[in-house]
Each structure stands twice: as structure tokens, then as C-alpha cells.
Specification:
Chain lengths: 257, 579
């Protein structure tokens, strides 16, 4: 809890206001609003206060306000965060709280960015393909689904995509699907009933090799999914086993695969 | 107004809303070979279904072997106080298990039993352990499964596009009019059949578990197109919402906490449910638990922030974190409470709209030809009180049925209805009006006042004098909405959107108030201070709402569909209200 919070009545919320210009570059400026401080208040409460009291046109995405839908992603004091889950008493309030849109995605307006690229990536992932669709009831033990369930906690906030330097700094949107979709691919690959082969896609189309394991994605994940350790590294290993392991390669040849 | 520009999209079937019901309907219609548009006002996968926590009710008998559709049917009818549509309750109980198997085959990963089956948990009002679940994030599993199935089914998805009105052609629905949130530009969607899956009306109340999306869009646009609503007085106040801190007041605390053994106590440490439903205790139906909490707080036995205590900390900490992970995090991060170590503070929150558009129980067609409805926007299944878990099953059972119904209609009426240009122009002018006015209030102020009024005058316990005050207040609200002004441009402008949404919320709010004044009894989610008991007349009648000749909200009654004898025999003698 910050020192400034004790007894403090209000604080300054510094919000990006702007839109893209005709070339698609983000233009705008930071605007300060004085916001009263309340018990247990989160950054999204402050943004709503600005909408209600100062400017109803402030653009922001939000839905559940309980960290379950992953809509209110933004960068708070430089850190990719869900605004609904970022407590103001966890921030230094003697200086402005700075809220900016996610930087890795094109700006639409104010705090809203164009995340449609993510949906197009998902469209290209081979969907779940069950091995025996006709069995009335599958016999699957809890320990067999624990791993897939960890990945299925993902709320698609895209904060991992935002923080990933392959996307954010190097703009490799055409080559790398990003952490979110490594998690999605891992949930399918590790589903006990799935029969599809996605390893060639994981290597080529989705570019798992681009990840160099800096773990920034794991750090920002609001669902605490071990993205790097449990999803990306095992996928890298499966690619290595398939393409680079001489023993596995020999066995595959014998099997005619 | 300047020259009107809009884009046009044409499909066989148009689905409005992409929660569980809309997605399931779109998947079915697409699988039957027709072209389908799915339009939603948020990003795909963010609809309210994502917030459902505890589970999905289906009599699969994986845990309690004696469960079956008849038992689920009986629990549902008892829970809805015999005011639900028996046919819908029967179809729902019969078809839910197959819909769950289908979700599994589409990739859903539910929690398992020790012998490798889909696990099921206890819930209020269900006499067997019946709720299929994934910890306390079942809704996320449902919507993500349907979303991934949907995007690989050839459906055209239009995200962040808000539909505002239905196009009609000689009494038949012809499509819909809307705008892109990003650009503010208008679009029309032409179709042979339209499915509404727009959810509920919770944003009309101050304390709610519902997101900004729940603004009665489907109720409003169907009302304007002439469709009938039923049972609008029945609002579900979920017993357990968060009460502190203020910013999270109303956010849902899943019933699964009680399903996993959570106990409710008052400030004296008493398990007060003993005084309200000693047999079922905390797992009584939601209407009874919500009223019990309300009574305890009013009697001065509440918690420091005006709720009661809910405690699960007698269970093993690791078990709590495994079965209720999002509750653990929600309280830890938002309220500084460790639920493995001590109690939560909870109180009732506006959660679900039991009533809604009247639909045919088998096809989900509304009273407007070609217009279908499924999920929360429709009425019938849940009567006076919905059982927890029956909403997610409702979405997939009747979402699928709406898809089948809409396809059958589109095939039988294969000529694409024509577009009435004057109607499109009127809709566009209505949308642009707030930009052309000056000096009015902010829509946020009007919304805040409406929510305050509905909460205090049409809340858990209803005083007819206060309900009448609400009814008398609506004309002034309409004046304020018609005069409100907004700032900024058409691009991603929440204030502009709210200015329009308020109109739908006013229609739905007035429907609630008028039905609440008319029903002179207490039943399920409707409690009157002046009529504490069931009334034999109202046991056999649904309230109805229609648009009057001047556009007014007109209340009426219709006889309840009569349950056939072979189903009546499932119940105790004289339990089902006789006709």
C-alpha cells in the first residue's frame, strides 16, 4: 500500500486521448483529470468517473469488471494491466496515474485498440479434432486434463501479446502468433482426446522459434498461466523432437511418418 | 440530415448477440447449410456468458445415479414456482445432457470424476448433484468452446457492431439496423429470419452483477417491432454479490461457494437459513436465500458493510483454490479478504431477467413472424425463479432450437423481405438526434438516476406505492432522454451509445414496474409487501407486455399453459396448481 493513499482525498488520472491520423499513426495527448479516491478503488473505477463526470465520449473497453472477460487491457504506469484489477492503493498516488492504450496494437481511439489481428490468427489454428467422436461418454481422468485446463483459463486480454517484444518491438505479426496462441495451441496439443497434428504449423506458420524465453508474457498474465514454462517450451520441445532429433527422426522413418 | 450512407449485408439468418445462446444458434443454422451473420456489440468471447461461474445443469447422472430428466424437470418447475412453461422445462431437462456431450466433442474440458466422467456438483434447488463445471469458470469454458467451434463453421462474425432496431416488411422481420462502434457508421443486415440473443436488463438496476452490455436491447427493439413479453416482474436477485469495496458492489460471488459447503451467518454468528428453509439451508432456491439475507440486514443483523457473512474457510485451503480459484483471487485482489482463512461479506445483487420475449417452446419464434429469441432475452423456462445452472443449459438447448427454428422459417419463406428505406432513414435520424441538440444532460446522469430508482422502488421487496411512483416517473425520464446531449464524434463514443441504450432500458424498466404492480401476490423473484402469499388466480396467469397504439407499455395477462396429466403425475398430489 502506498504512503500517499493514507488520508489522501483525490489523485490525478493522466489518460491518453487521441485517434489515428490518416496514415494510421496514433496522434493525441495526455489529459489530466482530478478523481476522488475511494476505498478499494481500481483504475477502471477512475476511468468510469471521468466518463460520468467529465467526458462521456472517453473510449474504453470493459465488460465484467471482475477480471473474467479480459476486455479492459491497457498500460498503467507503463505496465500492461487489466484496469479492473489494478488497485489504486497499489500505485504511488503523489504522482499522476498514467493510463495508455496497449502499444502493440493499432489505436482506434483513446484507450481502445484494434485487436482484430488476434482473431484472424485464431481462425488459422486447426480446431479441436476428436479421435473418437462416436463414443457416448469419454473416459478421461482429471490428471489428464489438468494441463489443458490451465491453458483454458486464458481470458484473451491480449496483455501477453502486448508485452511480447517479438510483436511489440519487432513487429513480427506475420511470422509469430504470439504467447496467447502458443497457449491456445498447447491447449489443443495437450488435450487428451485431440488427434490433429499441428507441429508443422507450430514451427512454420505460428513461428514458435521466434520466442526467446524472456518470460515477459508470464509476468503480465492476469490468470497466472505459466505461459513460457508450460506452453511455449513444451511446444518448442515437440518441434525439436520432430525436426531436429536424429533418434526421433529415425523412428519416424521406420514408422513411415 | 445529410445524405444517408449505410452498408448492406445479406444472409439467410441473422443472429444478434454472441453469448452462449447466439453462438449456439449460429452454429446450428450454419451447420444446416444456410448463410449466417453473427453480430455482437463487444469483441467475440466477451459476452455475459463468460462471467457465469458455478456450472451448467444437465441430468447426466454421473455422480448421483438416480438423476434423470424427470427429476431435473421437477426441480425446475418447483424452482420456477410452477409459473414456467412446462414444455420448455421438459425439453430443457431432456436435451441438456446431449448438448453437454456435444460441447465435449467440440473441445470443452470439464472437471472429471474419479472414474473419468464429467463431474457434477450440488447447487441450490437441484435435488441431485447435477452441475457440470470447470472450477468456478464454467461460462468461460462454454463461450470459448462455442467461439472456437463458431469461427471454424463459416459464420460471418461482425464484432463491435451494435444493432439498434429491427427492420420489418409487412408484419415480418426483414433484418436489422445498427452501427459500427469503431467508426459510428451505419449498416443494415438483411435476412429471412432473425434470432435475438441479446441477454437481460440488469443495467437498469444500481446493484447488479451484469456488465454494461445488459441494456435490454433485444427487449426494446422487439417491443418496437410488436413482439410480446411475459413475466417481466420476475427479476432474479442473486443472494450473493460482493458488498465491499464500493467499486465492486454487486459483482457475483458464485453459488458454487455454497455448493461446495459454504455457510451463511449473520452478525450474531447464527446460521440464519435455519429460520427460512431448515431442510435445504444454504442450498435453498435463490429467491428464498436473497430474501432471507435482505431480512437479516433489515433486522440489524448484517455485516459491517451491509451484507451477511459467507464462509467456506472450514474446507481445506488447497481444495478451495482448486474448486473456487476465481473467487479466491477476486476477494484477495479486490477486497483484501483471504477466503481460505475467513468469511466473505455478501449481499443480494440484480442478476437475471426471468421474463422476456414470449416464444414458441419448440421453435423459439416470438409473436413476430420470422423473429426468434433464445437465452436470457426470452421468457418461459424460468417462470418466477430460475435455478442456478439452468441458464447455461438454457443457452445451449434453446440456442440450438432457435437455430433450427430460424432455418425452417427461412426455408419456408425463401423470398428475402424488402427493405423499407423510410424505416432505415427514421432509425438513422433517431441515432443522430443527440448530436443535433444542445444544453441537455449527460446520459450518464440519467442512467444513474434510473438505476437508483429501479433499485429502490422495484427491488427485492416491492411496495405498490413506490412501484406506482416509478411508473409515474417514466414520462419525465423519456423527456430527459429525448433532450440529452453528447460530446465528441461518432467514433467509439460510449456516451452516444448510452443515449440510445437508455430508451431500451426505459421500456424494460416500465415493463418490470407495470407487471410488478399488476401481480398482487408474492412468488419467486417478485415480493409484495402487501401480498405476502401465493394467490390462486396468479398461479395460473402470466403477465404480458405489448406495445400499445401510442407506443405505450401496455400490461395484460394470459393463461398459463396447462401441464399434461402424465407430467403432473411426477409431482405430489395437489402440488401443481389445478386449473
Amino acid at each position: 500500500m502506498s504512503q500517499a493513499a493514507a488520508g489522501q482525498q483525490s489523485f490525478t488520472l493522466r489518460v491518453f486521448r487521441g485517434e489515428p491520423d490518416e496514415a494510421g499513426h496514433s496522434t493525441g495527448s495526455m489529459t489530466d483529470y482530478k478523481v476522488p479516491l475511494g476505498d478499494g478503488m481500481v483504475v477502471l473505477d477512475a476511468v468510469h468517473h471521468v466518463q460520468a463526470q467529465y467526458d462521456p465520449s472517453l473510449a474504453v473497453r470493459w465488460n465484467c469488471k471482475a477480471a473474467k472477460c479480459g476486455s479492459c487491457s491497457a498500460e498503467v504506469n507503463g505496465k500492461p494491466s487489466l484496469m479492473c484489477k489494478t488497485r489504486l492503493d497499489s500505485l504511488p498516488l503523489d504522482e499522476p496515474v498514467v493510463v495508455k492504450p496497449m502499444r502493440a496494437f493499432p489505436l482506434i481511439r483513446d484507450l481502445v485498440t484494434d485487436v482484430s489481428w488476434n482473431y484472424s490468427v485464431n481462425q488459422n489454428i486447426k480446431p479441436f479434432t476428436p479421435a473418437n467422436e462416436n463414443v457416448a461418454q469419454w473416459d478421461v481422468k482429471q490428471e489428464d486434463v489438468d494441463r489443458a485446463q490451465e491453458f483454458r483459463k486464458c481470458i484473451e486480454c491480449f496483455l501477453c501479446q502486448d508485452v511480447c517484444h517479438v510483436l511489440r518491438n519487432h513487429n513480427q505479426f506475420a511470422q509469430f502468433a504470439g504467447p496467447r496462441f502458443m497457449v491456445r495451441l498447447a491447449s489443443l496439443e495437450m488435450h487428451p482426446m485431440d488427434a490433429a497434428d499441428r507441429i508443422p504449423d507450430i514451427k512454420e506458420r505460428f513461428g514458435v522459434g521466434f520466442c526467446n524465453i524472456t518470460k515477459c508474457c508470464t509476468e503480465v498474465c492476469p490468470e497466472e498461466i505459466h505461459i513460457t514454462d508450460n506452453a511455449i517450451i513444451p511446444l518448442k520441445e515437440r518441434v525439436v523432437d520432430r525436426y531436429y532429433d536424429p533418434v526421433m527422426g529415425f523412428i519416424r522413418k521406420l514408422r513411415g511418418g | 440530415m445529410a445524405e444517408l450512407h449505410y452498408e448492406t449485408h445479406t444472409h439467410d439468418v441473422l443472429v444478434i448477440g454472441a453469448g452462449g445462446a447466439g453462438l449456439r444458434a449460429a452454429i446450428e443454422a450454419s451447420a444446416m447449410g444456410l448463410s449466417v451473420a453473427l453480430v455482437c456489440k463487444s469483441l467475440l468471447g466477451k459476452a455475459h456468458t463468460v462471467m457465469a461461474e458455478g456450472g451448467l445443469a444437465a441430468a447426466m447422472a454421473n455422480v448421483d445415479a438416480h438423476d434423470g430428466w424427470q427429476t431435473h424437470f421437477k426441480d425446475t418447475m418447483r424452482g420456477n414456482k410452477f409459473l414456467g412453461n412446462w414444455k420448455m422445462a421438459q425439453l430443457h431437462a431432456q436435451e441438456a445432457p446431449e448438448r453437454v456431450h456435444e460441447l465435449e466433442r467440440w473441445g470443452a474440458v470439464f472437471d472429471r470424476t474419479a472414474d473419468g466422467k464429467v463431474n457434477q456438483r450440488a447447487f441450490g434447488g437441484h435435488s441431485c448433484r447435477r452441475l457440470v463445471h470447470v472450477g468456478d469458470r464454467t461460462g468461460l469454458e462454454l463461450i470459448r468452446t462455442l467461439q472456437d467451434k463458431g469461427v471454424h463453421s463459416g459464420i460471418d462474425v461482425f464484432m463491435e457492431c451494435a444493432v439498434t432496431d429491427l427492420l420489418t416488411d409487412e408484419g415480418r422481420v426483414a433484418g436489422a439496423f445498427g452501427y459500427w462502434r469503431e467508426s459510428g457508421r451505419f449498416a443494415i443486415f438483411r435476412a429471412k429470419a432473425v434470432i435475438l440473443a441479446t441477454g437481460g436488463i440488469g443495467q437498469a438496476f444500481k446493484i447488479t452483477s451484469n456488465s454494461w452490455e445488459y441494456t435490454a436491447d433485444g427487449h426494446g427493439m422487439a417491443f418496437r417491432a410488436g413482439a410480446e413479453m411475459i413475466d417481466m416482474e420476475f427479476i432474479q436477485f442473486h443472494p450473493t454479490g460482493m458488498v465491499w469495496p464500493p467499486g465492486v458492489r454487486g459483482i457475483l460471488v458464485t453459488e458454487a461457494v455454497r455448493g461446495e459447503g459454504g455457510r451463511l451467518t449473520n452478525s450474531l454468528g447464527e446460521r440464519f437459513m435455519e429460520n427460512y428453509d431448515p431442510k435445504r439451508m444454504e442450498l435453498s432456491t435463490r429467491d428464498i436465500v436473497a430474501k432471507a439475507i435482505n431480512s437479516e440486514v433489515k433486522a440489524g443483523r448484517g455485516s459491517p458493510h451491509g451484507g451477511v457473512f459467507l464462509d467456506i474457510s472450514h474446507r481445506d485451503a488447497d481444495y478451495i483454490k482448486k474448486k473456487l480459484p476465481s473467487m479466491y483471487h477476486q476477494f484477495k485482489e479486490l477486497a483484501d479478504v483471504d477466503i481460505t482463512a475467513g468469511p466473505m461479506e455478501v449481499g443480494p445483487t440484480t442478476h437475471y431477467t426471468m421474463g422476456g420475449l414470449r416464444v414458441d417452446p419448440e421453435t423459439q419464434e416470438t409473436t413476430v413472424p420470422g423473429l426468434f429469441a433464445c437465452g436470457e432475452v426470452s421468457g418461459g423456462l424460468h417462470g418466477a425463479n430460475r435455478l442456478g445452472g439452468n441458464s447455461l443449459s438454457d443457452l445451449i438447448v434453446f440456442g440450438r432450437r432457435a437455430g433450427v427454428g430460424a432455418v425452417a422459417f427461412a426455408k419456408a419463406n425463401a423470398t428475402l423481405p424488402s427493405v423499407n428505406e423510410a424505416q432505415v432513414k427514421t432509425f438513422a435520424q433517431q441515432m443522430m438526434a443527440p448530436f443535433e441538440r444542445e444544453g441537455g444532460e449527460s446520459p450518464y446522469q440519467i442512467h444513474s438516476d434510473l438505476r437508483e430508482m429501479m433499485q429502490s422502488k422495484c427491488g427485492i421487496v416491492r411496495d405498490p406505492v413506490e412501484v406506482q411512483q416509478a411508473i409515474d416517473a417514466f414520462p419525465a425520464y423519456w423527456d430527459r432522454v429525448r433532450r440529452c446531449t453528447i460530446s465528441g464524434s461518432r467514433q467509439y463514443n460510449p456516451g452516444w451509445h448510452l443515449a440510445f441504450d437508455l430508451q431500451n432500458m426505459l421500456i424494460a424498466s416500465e415493463a418490470v414496474a407495470r407487471c410488478a404492480l399488476q401481480r398482487t401476490e408474492s412468488r419467486g423473484g417478485h415480493t409484495r409487501v402487501d401480498y405476502a402469499n401465493y394467490d390462486p388466480y396468479w398461479a395460473k396467469h402470466n403477465s404480458t407486455i405489448r406495445r400499445g397504439p401510442q407506443g405505450e407499455v401496455q400490461v395484460g395477462v394470459s393463461p398459463l399453459p396447462i401441464m399434461p396429466d402424465e407430467l403432473k403425475q411426477l409431482f405430489d398430489e395437489n402440488e401443481v396448481p389445478s386449473t
